[in-house]
Amino acid sequence: MTYKSFSWLIITVLAAACTSTDKKEEATSDRIDFKIHSQLPHDTGSFTEGFVVHNGKLYESTGEEGHSWFGVLNIKTGKPEKKVDLAEEYFGEGITILNNKVYQLTWKNKQGFVYDLNTFEKVNEFTYETEGWGLTHDGKDLIMSDGKSSLFYLDSATLKVTKTLPVTYQGQPVTMINELEYVNGYIFANIWQTNSIVKIDPADGEVAGVLDLSALAEQARIKNPEVDVLNGIAWYEGTKSLLVTGKYWPTIYALKLEE
What is the pTM assigned to this prediction? Predict the structure, then answer.
């Protein structure tokens, strides 16, 4: 989010963890290494907010009033080949797909939308009390972030909050939690305004690992000096790879994690 306030960052905690030998070893063990499996094009006009793969198709949602949409991407061009444009007053946010429906958040409007996956026709709307940032699901419930230090579980039928999960790292709250993706029993989350993706254990909310994507962010900036922050996580089960990108990034990176 371009206009959101900046506070505690996970990178700060990782740096602090390196002040002693024991803590340095602990911080190193938390690091998730990766290799770039492949690269795909991404539209540099897309202010990425949500990213998800479903049945082999890559879906994206974008933000900014008057420019927000969600749709299916053509992987050869990185541009949407089928999309839904939001009304100008809405700043689009995260999306997820569950039970043949697309769920979409908006930022400050406290308004969410539900679409039929096949037709993209709107079938429902819902409201929430916080800002809307990231969205994913665990196969049963929706999981939402609002940029603070907790995740919210929403019943997929009633769309009401059923549980709140505080997120911590070494005893400290993790704020600025943004885009989300549920991967093999863990919740992966972008930390806004950093190049970090954290791996959250949903059992207790503790961060179990950290991906540092600073090198990819630098590559993206070299290709397009107008790039904004890292934002966009999608798990592709077909190749067991994590697809990542960012706002106005020219590239989607497919990563093989080495945990």
Answer: 0.88
